[in-house]
Structures are given as structure tokens and as C-alpha cells.
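ESCALATION

Customer reports they have been waiting on this structure for their group meeting. Please prioritize. Original submission:
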Amino acid sequence: MKQSPFFILLFFMASLIVGCNSNQKVKPENQTVKSGKKYMVVAYVAGYREFDFTAIDVSGITHVNYAFANIRNGEVVFDTTKIDGVVPNTGDIVELNSLKVSKRDLKVLVSVGGWTWSGGFSDAALTEESRAKFAKSCAAFVKEYQLDGIELDWEYPNQPGAGNIHRPGDVQNFTLMLKAVREELDWMAEKEGNGNHYLLAIATGAEEAYVQNTELSELHKYIDFLNIMTYDFYNGWHNVNGHHSNYLPSARPEMDKNSVVNAVEMHVNAGFPVEKINLGIPFYGRIWKGVKAESDQILFNKAETVGMGIDYVDF
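Update from on-call: job pushed to the front of the queue and completed.
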């Protein structure tokens, strides 16, 4: 998940994504459809927003992912580095776990990495020894903070992302890293002997480059689910306006190079089981100013600004 300045909550409801401010209580739609099948509703909460997490209405939420933890010296840690001027607070996890009083089956996870904190993944995944060290730190982290699991948000294997270390070996090493973490979490659960299952998830890119640089047909064996980042297709890097989370390409598919359907199809065609896919749907928008339309074409015009984020409560 990208570290976007206007998010406090992101919802995935197989998936929903929601942004809100601290004065709001979020109540997503019921996750049970007419067929009786229950879908996951995963909420990302931003640890860099100084939000009172005890105020969250979790009645319609199944999982909460706290963003973010970092990787230091090959291990998962709560970092003292500020994000947007705020240091993620370990006390936030206590607040999130307290929500289980009203919803006993709520699952709380911590997301590791993100756009600017993915720099440690490639080195941590590089060798059998480094993977073992990382996996042990994941299990220890889960145990220390009484979590239900952990999510790895590596943006992106074998790609620089925000100038991160990357190498061709990332493609296979990511799979081996997930295998090591899965085995360590399972070993910890077996040792505890209470029948618990610790969750392991990942956040994935929606574009072809991500699919090509991961082994989706293999890594699914080791994770419980993934969250596709089907948003920000046109974003703060673009001074051309466009859909940032379109379901299908527009009338000009050469301009809508990404879409929700395309992202899911690429994952499935790559061998990832569809029942483990959570889909991101944003409750925030992108706004361009000074758009210079040369015709009646609304989209794909040059603008004076890039696609700035606008919270849905400000629409």
C-alpha cells in the first residue's frame, strides 16, 4: 500500500478501500452476499495519522492492517523514522487489539514496507540465512505485539520503486522469503499448541510489471490472501488527467493501460487462485487543476497540476 497523505483508513472487501478523517466512523457494507458467502473486509489504518483507533466501528470489518513497520538489519521493527512527521506508535496496536472486545473474531495484522520502506526487502530475501533471520523476526514481531498475522508490502520486487535496492533474484527470492515466513509462523503456532493459525498476506501491484516480477503461481501456496492495489492508475506523478481506479478501460484503452479487471485477470492467468484475491476500491479521488481540453474529450488532457489526492468526505 502506498503511503498516501490523505488516508486514515483503506478498506479492502475482497475488497473495499475507504479514506476517512478522524471525526468519522466508517461502516462498510455487510460482507455477506446473497449466496451466503462471507467476504473479507480488510481495513488499512495509517499509524502516521495520530488517530484514535478505539473510535473505529469494526462491526463490518474482518481484518485490520496497521501501516507500517520497517525492515532494519534484515529484521522487522517498529521504526523511529517519521512518516509525514509522525512516528508509528506501538501503543496503536494495543488500541487495535482492544477492538476485539466488541468483535472477538477481528484479525489484527501489521503491514511491513510500503512505498518508501521497501528498501530492506531485497537484502532480507537474498540468501537462505537472511530469509531465516527475517522469518524469525516476523514471528517474534507477531508474538510480541499479539498480532494475528503479518502482511509483506514489498513495492516492488526487481523494480526500484522509490529508489529501493532491487535485483533480478528478487523474483524467486520473494517466493522463498514467503515460504520461510510461513514455516516460521506455523512452527510458532505448533509450539504454542492452541490450534492457532497465523495469517500471512501480501499487497500486490495491479500492473503487468509486478506480475512479471513475481511468481504468483508459486507464492500463493504460502499466503492466506493478497490485496491488489487497484488504485492510483493515474496519480500524483501524472500531469494528464485520467481514471485512477477504473473497472474497465475507457473508450481509449491505449490510455487506460491499467484497470481493475485487467489486474485480476493477470493475477489469475499467472496462476494465482481467485478465491485468495482481495480487490482494492478507493473511496478517495484524484483532482487535476488547469486542465487544457482541446476538444470535448474529458479525460487524458494536459493539466497544470498532477493528480492530487482528495478525500471522499471533501467531495
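Sent to customer with the following note: The domain at 9-314 is CATH 3.20.20.80 (TIM Barrel).
Escalation resolved.
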